């Protein structure tokens, strides 16, 4: 099981890199931003048209924003080491608690999108790949190419207009019921599903033209038996590898899709944190997204190891 | 006894060009039939016609009788239902023919389960017996990449025969195997015969035919030129081609090893090398003199190529020292490769590639052209890209290219192992001629003991690491 | 065909049952990050969870809410607020004067309007009366008490650090679910005695940031009350059979703030030129789709007391603008941009996108100013960069929306905007001693005629001097499901008035 | 002659041909459009807001009464030049550093690869977001952030591919013959990687164009009144019902360019 240890170790290093990169980068960038941080915080707290210089001064004193940057950063890193992400400058709540609440929504959305990409996409790709050049293959691949070229936000809007307005089947916003999940998950997952369908199709073609497939036929297995026995597992490896590389797209999509559908997840919170210059919140959300990325990568690695014994050595 | 396989008057053609003409064979139980021939002789097409796996664009005629089922050779689907049941095919390079993501046992069990229709448990039990019979009990839970070449070969035989077919078809079963593994494969095939089956073997290796015995058929350009019992055909060939084929076996080569060692060009003292942290060899002392041929032999993975690369300075030794003669440019130590295609820029025509190398060494084109002519390389070939030239021709071009640097030492890394026997003999002869003429020392890596004996004045045998 | 037929069947068969079980769904763009009244408290007063002592009617005049009545002492320094008899908090405890005073004292310690009022003490006088004292006569106090951050919470609502942990208030609805920052749920509070028992048992508030999405929710029937619609969405919704759209003017004005301390804007003529260049009618018609929204003066007609009918209206006249600019010494430069003393007339306008129409209007103004030779760059920033730039002096101009009913009486807003050093959301580099004196007098005076005269004078000064240039007046746009009856919309946005609504038969 | 033969040898699938046509059309629109269609992309007419297509505005007018067609062609010029600039800015350091890492190996490789891993540890858009947050709406941070996020792809692909090529027998043979680095690069490395670079460039181009649109969507893209497709879509989104064509046109252009680039690129090199 050396492969598993190696893979996890590699991802652990990545997790450390993410932490260092996010904490350092966010802080530096936010320091470089023009404008008064205290005023932004005051705006976030009291509404934009109630902000006065007096309330900003109160915020400044309360949060210690007048201390030197290095001191603030060191304090943050020290707290981070103890698992304390600090307190949101805007809401005054603990970032850990806020992120924990958002994390559930983001994970729900990402996993729904991922399962779409992992189930629907490859299944279609498999069928297309079994008859390369067939009607399903050609139509499917044209559709997949179109879906991959569609920006996530355009796809989201299209889905909203079609299912939310024209057909009226699904709600266009909200997050408390299962039906709310459908459109965001589709917007996020369809592109990935299309891409993985394409990869699964190519992998299926590769598997069915591989020597071992031919050998299975020569040994007397029917084509259907040979497909069932040898294609799914062999096609899974490139699909998983592709997904692993493209998980970044998923995480990027989360930011856009959550904003579009008002999904109360980390991506949404991140864009708000940037706007409000809420350093702890920005770091907390960026860190969480980065770590989700790492965790999904780690899961993909393990799945690939499970599917492909050659990499376990 | 009724024959297991009969092919009558087989003809295979592509676009009106006949690739196989008038081939008739008969395979009887217990008597192996070996078809020997070089690349392009059509021998593989015969096997494919028997199975019904000919490429769709090929037109075939003739009759194929498998067991008691007769069908037209062109009717590919007719024999489909006999795969695994009546006829089993042993794949080339069996390590590629096994599903890399599946353990050995279930792959062998597939034949019992899906072809014989046994239950899962029963199929698994039978597969376990099959593996045990081949001495592979320990390998049942391994994955293909954890098998050695010989083990993969045996697993493939077990998997191919699991469906219970009496006829085994083996197409180039020794391709890519070391010579010492070849005898194991032959033993394996003979084992299948002993179990009451019959065997059709396709090979370019006369040694395999000799070891298998039974009947031998020699094919050239789509036709059978000679057919008869192995001992007759291989000892008293009647056809000129068969005689050339037998003469091309290194065993039959003239023993004209070049003994004369001139001044020392290269020496190594207490040399050691490692690969992936594993010691390949150590405490090796070696000196090569001008014009000398030294052969390096040993099983795969023992470090033969590594030794040559260390001597050329391409790799750093783990210990010890290599000394090349002072005053000689590094470019006078050259190398020939096993696969010449990989040593040329793939998108560049050969003329440009050679012209640039000639210009680099200040060799006029006329001199290079003369050398190419001596090596029997047609000038027209030079306008092609490396992958459009046959292996033997390209290897001769590679020799000409290496000679541009006026080398004193040539490391030849299995330069002929991928060539047909006759081409191999020709290429080797060309190299020896050049060497003798220029006093070029050659370090030849080969896994063919016979060749080493015939050409080298000295041998270094490396042990498996 | 818009819904699965089965559901349609269910709806026709048991309308009463289905409707009664469904909560009222209210959608607006505002987030609810926390329960802190000074931060997001307006959401809770609007959803009728929390009450203030005083409410306001459509005209902004104070009306009883948790206080059933009040008196002002003769020296106009002491306010006595009588609490509504029998009122209870959501936890069942009685509303006592001590609890109310504690809540107000806590509110005063938070940033908010109350902190700026000249209060000296807030005390309980017996169980039913709260007494507030000011250091000087302060007429707008009732308006300050009607502001959402002055909402009354039970002492058990906040912990020892003063942070609000539970929302124990007194309104007709109580909080039963809280999912910040997007959603909270309320349920009818049966013990509420401030009026007839509400007909609707449960309601949900959802924050949806994008205007299109809000409109779609209304159109698809997934929201019953949608506030702050985009002009574009409004037109579409008007055609929907499901909803009724109400558009009403509110006391909010979009203004262009110019830094009068800058050389190009210190000259009144350039400010007038900018004002003359702006195509208010085009913006009102083309962007806000409400021709009447083009501002003719700072205060919209809804602020009847401040709107001066006879004032010469602001208008568009590019030729006059060019003339004024020429008089001020600006000459046409090579690329069509005016120059003076070798410097081009160029400045950056900051605006923000929380209100989606602001960047659009900024783009329209940009083009209009270019036509008279002024190069204006638009920077869409976070709104707080406007007060920040005001304070550090880097702000050149800003486009913003100013709400005059934040504290129901506009005097509160004006005091903040036009003081001696201007105001974050008001004048910059400009001050009028006369206006300052007028505003101070208004804070003390109670005499109606004097107040009216002072208000008129203040409006006239602002119109003449243009420290901020009014662009358009806002409309309040609400989509109301036809399933709802008895709906009224508060023009001051103090309440969604859900306690008076009921499901249509 | 040889070049021609090489192109013929690579062959064009129908997909490549279609991709090339789409990209060619958009590029043509970017180059010629602003010359053929007269008018300023920022010229407003508040009395003609959201007007349907007419003779003087063939695709109608937007929410500020600006001609959609004029804005469309100027946006094409912007997207095409921004995409191309980003690709160049990412490719040049990426290729050079990739070659350097593959050639030098050892510590140079380790340091450069570590740097690449650090950048890749975060999803690209997150990085762009953080850089763009410095000055939302401006061109340079957007360009810088995209290039910063994208050079790693070039670096890694170049490093891996050239590493494999440099270890190939062909290069070994060339070096044994005495050829220098320049020859190895010119004959053995670059020609082999050219198709790969083409693919990367097409994907990078598409990625940059998409990212600009996505950033515009979440409000930190280029600043209005810039004519940019993503921005145009976002600006016109509230008017999807009244002026569907005005919103659809930039979406279609963006879609055509990205689809064309993806078809042209062929398979994902990662």
TrEMBL record, chain A:
Task: Specify whether Transmembrane helix is a keyword of the entry.
Answer: yes
Single GO cellular component annotation? plasma membrane
- Which intervals of the chain form a coiled coil? none
**A matching Pfam family:** BPD_transp_1
SUPFAM superfamilies noted in UniProt: MetI-like
Compartment list: Cell membrane
InterPro entries on file: BPD_transp_1_N, MetI-like, MetI-like_sf
Task: Give the way it sits in the membrane.
Answer: Multi-pass membrane protein
Q: Would the keyword Ribonucleoprotein be found if you checked this record's keyword annotation?
A: no
Regions that span the bilayer: 12-33, 107-130, 150-169, 203-221, 242-266, 286-307
Q: Where is the ABC transmembrane type-1 domain?
A: 103-304
The GO terms describing molecular function are:
dipeptide transmembrane transporter activity
- Which keywords describe this protein according to UniProt? Cell membrane, Membrane, Transmembrane, Transmembrane helix, Transport
PANTHER family noted in UniProt: DIPEPTIDE TRANSPORT SYSTEM PERMEASE PROTEIN DPPB-RELATED
Similarity comment text for this entry: Belongs to the binding-protein-dependent transport system permease family.
Write the protein's name. Answer: ABC transporter permease
Automatic annotation (TrEMBL), chain B:
* Entry-linked Pfam families: ABC_tran (PF00005)
Q: Where in the cell is it found?
A: Cell inner membrane
Question: What keywords are assigned to this protein?
Answer: ATP-binding, Cell membrane, Membrane, Nucleotide-binding, Transport
Enumerate the spans annotated as ABC transporter domain: 5-246, 266-465
Topology relative to the membrane: Peripheral membrane protein
Keyword field contains Membrane: yes
Q: Which first-to-last residue range defines the signal peptide?
A: none
GO MF entries: ATP binding; ATP hydrolysis activity
A GO CC annotation recorded here is:
plasma membrane
This protein's source sits in the domain of life called Bacteria
Q: Which family does it belong to?
A: Belongs to the ABC transporter superfamily.
Specify the protein name: ABC transporter ATP-binding protein
Annotated source species: Falsiroseomonas algicola
Automatic annotation (TrEMBL), chain C:
Q: Where in the cell is it found?
A: Periplasm
Q: Does the keyword Signal apply?
A: yes
UniProt keyword list = Signal
Q: Its domain of life?
A: Bacteria
One matching Pfam family, short form?
SBP_bac_5
Q: Which InterPro entries match?
A: Peptide/Ni-bd (IPR030678), SBP_5 (IPR039424), SBP_5_dom (IPR000914)
In the UniProt record, the signal sequence range is: 1-20
User: Where is the Solute-binding protein family domain positioned along the sequence?
Assistant: 62-420
Q: Name one GO molecular function term.
A: peptide transmembrane transporter activity
Mind listing the GO biological process terms from this record? peptide transport
Q: Does the keyword Signal apply?
A: yes
Q: Which family does it belong to?
A: Belongs to the bacterial solute-binding protein 5 family.
| Name by which UniProt lists this protein | ABC transporter substrate-binding protein
Q: Which organism is it from?
A: Falsiroseomonas algicola
UniProtKB/TrEMBL annotation, chain D:
The family line of this record is: Belongs to the binding-protein-dependent transport system permease family.
Classify the protein's membrane topology as the record does. Multi-pass membrane protein
| Gene Ontology MF terms in the entry | dipeptide transmembrane transporter activity
Entry-linked PANTHER family: D,D-DIPEPTIDE TRANSPORT SYSTEM PERMEASE PROTEIN DDPC-RELATED, OLIGOPEPTIDE TRANSPORT SYSTEM PERMEASE PROTEIN APPC
What Gene3D superfamilies does the database record attribute to this sequence? Answer: MetI-like (1.10.3720.10)
Species of origin reads Falsiroseomonas algicola
Is Transport tagged as a keyword? yes
Asked whether the UniProt record includes Aminoacyl-tRNA synthetase among its keywords, one would answer no
Provide this UniProt record's keywords sorted from A to Z. Answer: Cell membrane, Membrane, Peptide transport, Protein transport, Transmembrane, Transmembrane helix, Transport
ABC transmembrane type-1 domain location: 76-265
Name used for this protein in its record:
ABC transporter permease
Q: Give the chief site where it resides.
A: membrane
**InterPro entries per the record?**
BP-dependent_transpt_permease, MetI-like, MetI-like_sf
Q: Which residues cross the membrane?
A: 20-37, 82-106, 118-143, 197-223, 243-265
One GO cellular component term of this record is: plasma membrane
A Gene Ontology BP annotation from the UniProt entry: protein transport
Q: What is the lineage of its organism?
A: Bacteria, Pseudomonadati, Pseudomonadota, Alphaproteobacteria, Acetobacterales
Compartments it resides in? Cell membrane
């Amino acid at each position: 099981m050396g492969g598993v240890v190696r893979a996890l170790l590699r991802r652990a290093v990545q997790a450390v890199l993410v932490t260092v990169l996010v904490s350092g980068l966010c802080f530096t960038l936010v320091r470089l931003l023009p404008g008064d941080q205290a005023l932004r915080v005051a705006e976030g707290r009291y509404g934009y048209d109630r902000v006065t210089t007096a309330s900003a001064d109160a915020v400044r004193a309360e949060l210690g924003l007048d201390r030197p940057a290095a001191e603030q950063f060191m304090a943050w890193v020290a707290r981070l080491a103890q698992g304390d992400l600090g307190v949101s400058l805007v809401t005054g709540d603990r970032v850990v608690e806020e992120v924990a609440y958002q994390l559930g929504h983001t994970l729900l959305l990402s996993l729904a999108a991922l399962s779409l990409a992992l189930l629907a996409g490859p299944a279609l790709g498999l069928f297309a790949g079994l008859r390369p050049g067939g009607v399903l293959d050609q139509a499917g691949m044209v559709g997949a190419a179109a879906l991959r070229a569609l920006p996530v936000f355009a796809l989201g809007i299209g889905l909203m207009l079609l299912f939310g307005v024209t057909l009226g089947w699904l709600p266009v916003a909200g997050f408390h019921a299962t039906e709310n999940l459908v459109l965001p998950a589709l917007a996020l997952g369809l592109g990935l599903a299309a891409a993985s369908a394409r990869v699964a199709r190519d992998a299926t073609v590769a598997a069915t033209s591989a020597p071992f497939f031919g050998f299975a036929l020569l040994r007397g297995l029917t084509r259907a038996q040979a497909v069932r026995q040898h294609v799914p597992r062999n096609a899974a490896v490139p699909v998983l590898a592709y997904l692993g590389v493209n998980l970044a797209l998923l995480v990027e999509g989360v930011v856009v899709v959550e904003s579009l559908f008002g999904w109360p997840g980390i991506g949404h919170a991140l864009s708000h944190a940037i706007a409000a210059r809420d350093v702890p919140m920005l770091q907390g959300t960026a860190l969480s997204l980065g770590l989700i990325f790492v965790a999904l990568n780690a899961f993909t690695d393990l799945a690939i190891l499970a599917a492909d014994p050659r990499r376990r050595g | 006894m009724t024959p297991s396989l009969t092919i009558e008057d087989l003809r295979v053609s592509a676009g009106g060009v006949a690739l196989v003409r008038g081939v008739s064979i008969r395979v009887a139980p217990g008597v192996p039939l070996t078809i020997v021939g070089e690349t392009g002789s059509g021998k593989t097409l015969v096997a494919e016609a028997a199975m019904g796996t000919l490429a769709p664009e090929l037109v075939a005629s003739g009759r194929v009788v498998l067991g008691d089922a007769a069908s037209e050779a062109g009717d590919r689907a007719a024999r489909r239902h006999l795969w695994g049941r009546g006829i089993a095919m042993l794949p080339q390079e069996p390590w590629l023919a096994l599903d890399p993501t599946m353990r050995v046992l279930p792959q062998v069990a597939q034949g019992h389960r899906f072809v014989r229709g046994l239950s899962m448990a029963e199929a698994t039990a039978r597969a376990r017996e099959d593996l045990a019979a081949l001495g592979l009990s320990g390998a049942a839970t391994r994955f293909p990449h954890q098998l050695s070449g010989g083990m993969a070969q045996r697993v493939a035989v077990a998997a191919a025969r699991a469906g219970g077919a009496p006829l085994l078809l083996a197409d180039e079963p020794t391709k890519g195997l070391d010579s010492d593994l070849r005898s194991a494969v032959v033993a394996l095939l003979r084992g299948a015969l002993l179990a009451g089956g019959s065997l059709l073997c396709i090979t370019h290796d006369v040694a395999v035919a000799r070891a298998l015995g039974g009947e031998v058929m020699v094919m050239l350009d789509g036709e059978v030129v000679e057919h008869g019992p192995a001992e007759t055909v291989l000892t008293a060939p009647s056809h000129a081609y068969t005689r050339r084929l037998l003469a091309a076996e290194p065993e039959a080569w003239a023993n004209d090893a070049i003994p004369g060692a001139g001044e020392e060009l290269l020496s190594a003292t207490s040399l050691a090398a490692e690969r992936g942290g594993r010691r390949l060899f150590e405490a090796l002392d070696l000196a090569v003199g001008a014009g000398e041929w030294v052969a390096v032999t040993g099983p795969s993975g023992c470090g033969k190529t590594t030794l040559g690369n260390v001597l050329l300075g391409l790799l750093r030794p783990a210990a010890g020292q290599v000394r090349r003669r002072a005053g000689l440019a590094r470019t006078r130590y050259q190398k020939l490769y096993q696969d010449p295609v990989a040593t040329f820029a793939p998108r560049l025509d050969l003329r440009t590639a050679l012209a640039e190398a000639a210009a680099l060494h200040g060799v006029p084109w006329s001199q290079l052209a003369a050398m190419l002519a001596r090596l029997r390389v047609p000038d027209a070939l030079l306008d092609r890209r490396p992958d459009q030239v046959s292996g033997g021709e390209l290897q001769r071009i590679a020799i000409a290219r290496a000679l541009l640097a006026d080398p004193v030492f040539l490391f030849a890394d299995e330069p002929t192992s991928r060539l047909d026997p006759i081409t191999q003999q020709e290429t080797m002869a060309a190299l020896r001629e050049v060497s003798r003429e220029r006093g070029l020392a050659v370090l030849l890596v080969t896994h063919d003991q016979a060749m080493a004996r015939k050409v080298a004045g000295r041998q270094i045998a490396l042990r498996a690491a | 065909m818009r819904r699965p037929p089965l559901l349609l069947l269910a709806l026709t068969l048991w309308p009463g049952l289905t409707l009664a079980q469904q909560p009222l769904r209210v959608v607006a763009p505002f987030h609810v990050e926390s329960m802190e009244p000074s931060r997001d408290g307006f959401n809770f007063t609007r959803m009728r969870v929390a009450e203030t002592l005083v409410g306001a009617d459509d005209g902004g005049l104070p009306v009883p809410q948790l206080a059933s009545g009040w008196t002002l002492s003769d020296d106009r320094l002491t306010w006595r607020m009588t609490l509504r008899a029998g009122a209870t908090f959501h936890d069942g405890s009685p509303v006592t004067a001590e609890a109310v005073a504690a809540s107000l004292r806590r509110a005063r310690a938070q940033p908010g309007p109350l902190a700026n009022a000249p209060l000296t003490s807030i005390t309980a006088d017996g169980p039913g009366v709260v007494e507030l004292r000011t250091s000087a006569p302060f007429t707008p106090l009732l308006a300050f008490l009607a502001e959402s951050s002055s909402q009354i919470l039970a002492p058990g609502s906040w912990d020892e650090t003063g942070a609000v942990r539970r929302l124990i208030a007194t309104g007709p609805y109580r909080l039963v679910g809280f999912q910040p920052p997007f959603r909270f749920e309320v349920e009818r509070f049966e013990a509420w005695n401030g009026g007839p028992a509400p007909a609707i048992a449960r309601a949900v508030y959802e924050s949806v940031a994008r205007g299109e999405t809000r409109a779609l929710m209304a159109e698809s029937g997934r929201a019953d009350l949608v506030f702050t619609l985009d002009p574009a969405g409004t037109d579409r919704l008007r055609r929907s059979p499901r909803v009724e759209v109400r558009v009403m003017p509110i006391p909010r004005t979009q203004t262009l703030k110019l830094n009068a301390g800058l050389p190009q804007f210190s000259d009144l003529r350039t400010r007038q030129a900018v004002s003359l260049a702006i195509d208010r009618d085009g913006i009102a018609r083309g962007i806000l789709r409400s021709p009447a929204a083009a501002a003719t003066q700072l205060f919209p007609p809804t602020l009847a007391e401040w709107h001066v009918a006879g004032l010469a209206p602001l208008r568009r006249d590019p030729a006059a603008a060019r003339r004024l600019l020429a008089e001020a010494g600006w000459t046409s430069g090579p690329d069509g941009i005016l120059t003076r003393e070798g410097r081009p007339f160029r400045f950056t306008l900051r605006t923000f996108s929380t209100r989606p129409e602001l960047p659009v209007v900024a783009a329209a103004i940009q083009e209009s100013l270019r036509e008279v030779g002024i190069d204006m760059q638009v920077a869409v920033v976070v709104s707080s960069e406007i007060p920040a730039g005001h304070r550090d002096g880097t702000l050149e101009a800003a486009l913003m929306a100013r709400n005059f009913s934040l504290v129901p009486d506009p005097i509160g807003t004006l005091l903040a905007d036009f003081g001696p050093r201007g105001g974050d959301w008001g004048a910059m580099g400009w001050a009028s001693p006369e206006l300052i004196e007028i505003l101070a007098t208004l804070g003390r005076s109670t005499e109606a005629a004097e107040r009216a005269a002072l208000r008129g004078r203040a409006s006239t000064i602002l119109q003449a001097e243009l420290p901020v240039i009014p662009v358009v007046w806002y409309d309040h746009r609400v989509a109301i499901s036809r399933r709802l009856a008895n709906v009224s919309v508060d023009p001051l946005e103090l309440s969604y008035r859900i306690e008076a609504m009921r499901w249509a038969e | 002659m040889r070049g021609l033969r090489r192109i013929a040898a690579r062959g064009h699938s129908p997909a490549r041909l279609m991709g090339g046509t789409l990209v060619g059309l958009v590029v043509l629109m970017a180059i010629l459009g602003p010359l053929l269609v007269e008018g300023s992309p920022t010229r407003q007419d508040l009395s003609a807001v959201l007007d349907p297509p007419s003779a003087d505005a063939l695709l109608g007018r937007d929410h500020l009464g600006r001609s959609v067609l004029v804005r469309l062609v100027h946006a094409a010029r912007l997207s095409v030049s921004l995409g191309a600039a980003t690709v160049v800015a990412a490719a040049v350091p990426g290729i050079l550093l990739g070659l350097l890492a593959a050639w030098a190996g050892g510590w140079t490789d380790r340091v450069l690869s570590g740097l690449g891993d650090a950048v890749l540890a975060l999803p690209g858009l997150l990085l762009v977001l953080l850089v763009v947050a410095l000055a939302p709406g401006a061109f340079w941070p957007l360009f810088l952030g995209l290039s910063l996020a994208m050079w790693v792809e070039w670096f890694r692909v170049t490093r891996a591919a050239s590493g494999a090529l440099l270890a190939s027998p062909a290069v070994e043979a060339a070096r044994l013959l005495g050829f220098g680095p320049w020859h190895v690069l010119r004959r053995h490395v670059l020609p082999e990687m050219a198709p790969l670079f083409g693919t990367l460039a097409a994907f990078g181009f598409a990625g940059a164009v998409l990212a600009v649109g996505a950033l515009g969507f979440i409000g930190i893209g280029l600043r209005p009144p810039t004519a940019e497709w993503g921005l145009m879509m976002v600006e016109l989104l509230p008017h999807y019902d009244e002026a569907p064509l005005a919103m659809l046109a930039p979406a279609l252009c963006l879609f055509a360019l990205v689809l064309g680039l993806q078809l042209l690129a062929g398979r994902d090199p990662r």
